[in-house]
Amino acid sequence: MRKGACVLGFALLLAASGCDKRGAGENHKDEPAKAAPSAAASAHGHGEGEHGEHGEHEELPRRVTLSPSVITDARIHTAPVRMGTLAITIALPGAIAADPDRSARISSPAEGKLEEVHFKEGAAVKKGDVLAVVRVPELGKVRGAQAATLAKAKAARENAARLKALLEQRLTSEQAVLDAEAEARALSIEAAALGEQLTAMGAGASRGAPFLLTLRAPIDGTILARDAVVGQPVTAEHVLGSIADLREVWFLGRVFEKDLGRLRVGAGAEVELNAYPTTRFAGSLEYIGQQIDPVARTVTARIHLQNRDDMLRIGLFGTAYVATGGDQAREPRLLVPRSAITEIGQKPVVFVKLPEEGAFEMHDVVLGDSALGTVEVLSGLGEGEEVVVEGVFTLKSAVLKGTIDEEGHH
């Protein structure tokens, strides 16, 4: 027992020594604040917990001063902290899907055999890019028939012109001229029909062989799938691959019957995906299905999303939070845009604009609920304070690099 007491006393002595060392140079008038830190003190990192459990973050600066040019280049903008209530939302489970109007399938319009394949999954393609070359025997026959018909039509036109000249000299009959002109028109129509048949078969440049068919990308986009190998036989029903323009996508959510009356087309929405639990994607509800799934008893709701940074992939699961526009008995709280929140040392913080030109201060905050790009702040801010909502990364980088306003800090 005496040995344990000695060890405990030695540990307490070391702790007291560490506290004295950290407190050196501090005003003793701050001692009551340390004993019972206020919410504001905690938000500014002056509480006991900050010096105790998170002492490793004590050296990070709380203030940052930037020049006007840096503020302009970083596009730093602020917005006032306001009092209000969050929008009421409905949670809709679902997944990301491609927009059919921005999608296309790659297939051969005629039966044949693959000679060349020029696309791979994940590759970006432009409209008109060569994707594959197919050998189509029937294509050679049609092209040959068209060439022969065009030649006959040309000869028939020349014969009609010759007979017309002879008619003027009364060396032939008018009926012979009419027959020759009719034959020329018929052959021209037949050649045009064969040309339409080639177009329907997707015939483009012959590439040096009349039986080769070139398949080109019908839209700009990304190759999602490929089922094409050189030498394989293909038919018009065989899908060789698929393309989608993923700059804009859909989130298809499931709405239960009981919630149908609370949704309106055009309502704001946020989508949270399982793959990115800390990121929200803003969109709007653009369509509510007209048919109930007889098994799940749900209706499909379509939300249009912009695919920023190419993060959205087809099939990703998640939840959409859609505003209902209804009222709710909820206590008003301080609200800030979600873009104002960042993390430093695994703690949520915001940057507040100070009266001094170019000066900002980092505040630790305690967050509440969130909805549609807005977050409740339970402590750490005051109503009317200007928080940075754009360019937060620049300020965060300055803090982590130790760029501070020395006079303001001391």
TrEMBL record:
Low complexity composition bias: residue spans: 34-44
UniProt biased composition (Basic and acidic residues): 22-33, 45-62
Keywords linked to the UniProt accession: Transport
Coiled-coil intervals, chain numbering: none
Pfam families xrefs: Beta-barrel_RND_2, BSH_CzcB, CzcB_C
Residue spans crossing the bilayer: none
Database matches in InterPro entries: Beta-barrel_RND_2, BSH_CzcB-like, CzcB_C, MFP_Cation_Efflux, RND_pump_MFP
Protein name: Efflux RND transporter periplasmic adaptor subunit
Origin species: Polyangium mundeleinium
